[in-house]
Design a protein that fits this description.
The chain is an alpha+beta fold. Helices cover 37% and strands 21% of the residues. The protein contains 4 helices and 4 strands; from the N terminus they run ααββαββα. Strands 1-2-4-3 form a 4-stranded antiparallel sheet, with helices on one face. β3 (78-83) and β4 (90-95) form a beta hairpin. It is globular.
């Protein structure tokens, strides 16, 4: 059983790259860049952002790999993959507690294809 102090402990808004093994950091960053180049639209949520992605056969594998490693270095992120019926849309939601949006903008903004989409919210 945990006490109330342990239950309220929250990690700071900071990427802990040492949480990812050195030989996996480069591939993780390359995968993140590839994924966020596929973003067609960004929707602001109360607690984060939803990224509408171009679909492809390997998309779900890449999303799974991204979440597997990103949750290690950014444990304060919540993740959800939303798939609409009939192949209409695939979205990745990045969420978190109050204050996470500026971190997402700084962290993910560098991976976005600036002429097409931007985190201008």
């Amino acid at each position: 059983m945990t006490n109330s102090t342990e239950a309220r402990r929250e990690s700071p808004f900071a990427c802990i790259m040492t949480a990812i093994e050195p030989e996996q950091r480069g591939p993780h960053l390359a995968n993140a860049k590839q994924l966020f180049k596929r973003v067609r639209e960004i929707r602001e949520l109360d607690d984060g952002f939803s990224f509408l992605l171009d679909d492809s056969p390997e998309l779900f594998v890449k999303l799974g790999e991204f979440i597997t490693f990103e949750r290690l270095c950014c444990p304060f992120f919540g993740f959800a993959i939303e798939v609409e019926p009939e192949g209409r849309a695939v979205s990745l939601k990045l969420t978190g507690r109050e204050g996470v949006k500026p971190f997402i903008k700084a962290e993910i903004g560098e991976f976005l294809d600036a002429p097409r989409v931007a985190l201008n919210t």
